[in-house]
Amino acid sequence: MQRPCNLKKVTCMRTRPFKINHVHDETKTVLLLDSNGIAFEDLDIPSNMQVFAFSGSKISDIMHILTSSESALSRIDTMVTGIGTNNRNDLNASQAIQDMKDILHSKEEETLLVRHPSIWRYPSGCNVKYYSIEQHGTGCIPNQFLTYTEHLGH
Fold first, then answer.
1. Please, are residues 102 and 144 in contact by the beta-carbon 8 Å criterion?
2. Domain assignment present for 130
3. 2: in domain
4. Domains in the chain: how many in total?
């Protein structure tokens, strides 16, 4: 199905508090991403999918986004989040892990987390910190983590 020309497929937000005010009528899957979500602008994503990129967002922001955007997200079947890169310098990973659990167990719609690739420009310690958060989350909620080789919406 072709996306109508007047509908944006990627919405970028830089100002807090983050909130989704509107999703397109045909949208069934929403991707909640950090600023790296802008990369989807050049991709041919399905018309029933919409991307929101929140600059500087952390895992702890997701619950606020979902709560403050409840009415706009009421018709969504699946939410995929790829937020967490900005947690790389957090001193305590336990709060991010608890936030992931809260997010995944709070919503009726299917909620999935995307594994992050290694980010070459960050010091290895940053990647280690993120992967320790992800590893713990994967152990607690294994069926809700997607890898980049898995296909969304199939």
1. no
2. yes
3. no
4. 1
Under 8 Å between Cβ of 82 and 62 = no
Strand-by-strand arrangement of the 110-114 sheet: 10-13, 49-54, 29-34, 78-82, 110-114, 145-146
Residue 1 lies in a domain: no
What Cα–Cα distance (Å) separates residue 105 from each residue in 41, 52, 98?
A: 30, 21, 11
CATH assignment of the domain containing 93:
3.40.50.1110
CA-CA distance, 31 to 47, in Å (whole number)?
A: 13
| Spatial distance between the Cα atoms of 142 and 122, rounded to a whole number of angstroms | 26
Residue indicated by tokens 């009528």: 25
Per-residue pLDDT tens listing for the chain (154 residues) = 454 545 789 999 999 999 999 999 999 999 999 998 898 888 889 999 999 999 999 988 988 998 899 999 999 998 888 877 787 777 777 777 777 777 777 666 667 666 555 444 545 554 455 555 666 555 555 556 555 444 444 4
